[in-house]
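Figure 3 (text version): structure tokens given as input.
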């Protein structure tokens, strides 16, 4: 798909301030520095999920803190056209919920699938959370996924956050 301001307007998305480059999903360049900062100062649940996604799911390349439109997605996989969001307790607030709902609609209008997980679920059982991503989108869990790690305490003990 070639993204243009006209296409976004037809989908009900404001193209103001977005950078367009052919088939690359448009993004707000003003978010690039913030995304970079989030990659280095992320929350514990995102660190857990990143460790799993970057190391264990062969065949799918995930990027972290990816600017998409006027938002920053926690994780994005181009091959699956998938956005994964890890939500904390602040997402229970009505205003934040409405923002998340609009964000999901905008991303889904581009053909992206959005999976949301609660941060507490990721922290308590990150491998199960990762399995839920694949089950939710109807993709078979890669064979290497199940046997790669044996025990969460070994995977996550070095993390300080």
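Below: residues designed for each position.
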């Amino acid at each position: 798909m070639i993204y243009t301001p006209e296409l976004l307007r037809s989908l009900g998305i404001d193209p103001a301030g977005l950078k367009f480059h052919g088939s690359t999903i448009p993004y707000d360049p003003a978010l690039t520095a913030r995304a970079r900062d989030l990659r280095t100062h992320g929350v514990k649940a995102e660190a857990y999920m990143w460790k799993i996604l970057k190391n264990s799911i062969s065949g799918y390349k995930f990027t972290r803190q990816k600017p998409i439109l006027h938002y920053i997605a926690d994780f994005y996989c181009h091959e699956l056209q998938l956005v994964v969001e890890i939500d904390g307790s602040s997402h229970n607030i009505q205003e934040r919920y409405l923002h998340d709902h609009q964000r999901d609609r905008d991303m889904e209008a581009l053909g992206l699938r959005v999976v949301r997980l609660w941060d507490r679920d990721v922290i308590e059982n990150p491998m199960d959370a990762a399995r839920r991503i694949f089950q939710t989108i109807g993709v078979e869990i890669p064979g290497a996924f199940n046997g790669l790690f044996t025990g969460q305490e070994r995977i996550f003990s070095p993390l300080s956050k």
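The first helix runs from residue 5 to 10.
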